[in-house]
Amino acid sequence: RRIRTRNDLGQFDYTYLGQTEQMVSARLLGTPIGRDLIYEANAGDRRLYRLSHHGGGAPSYTYASAPEQLIDGIVETVGGQSALWAYDYDAAGRLKVADRSDGAQYDYAYDAEGNVSHIEA
Q: What domain of life is recorded for the organism (predicted)?
């Protein structure tokens, strides 16, 4: 199903999967600017798999996720260059480590209430 709206930025077309109400595309009419969203099949709980941006130089993302609704990895692509992000979680499902393919690593610490208290790069 398609919905067309207009606001101060212009006229947009939004397309949704009829059976799930999940957005599959958004386009600024008359321009190359837009985004596409691709989801896992039913066996993958229809989790978001890929978010691609068109026009404007915005990055695109491909996700790998686990049934626990946690993201295992992301491929981030900007201008034809890709970086891989890998994630590790603690037993409570909180992000513990984020590693990027260029060697950057971010370690997360939490306070007693489960809030992020420190990120070490």
A: Bacteria
User: How does pLDDT run across 88-98, given as a tens digit for each residue?
Assistant: 999 999 999 99
Beta-bridged to residue 27, according to DSSP, are 13, 34
Task: Say what the pTM is.
Answer: 0.69
Q: For residue range 51-71, list pLDDT tens digits in order.
A: 888 887 788 899 888 777 789
DSSP letter for each residue of 19-88: TT--EEEEEETTSS-EEEEEE--GGGTT-EEEEEEESTT--EEEEEE-TTS-EEEEEEEETTEEEEEEEE
Q: Which residues contact 22 (CB under 8 A, 6 or more apart)?
A: 16, 37, 39, 46
77 contact partners, CB below 8 Å, separation of at least 6: 59, 60, 61, 62
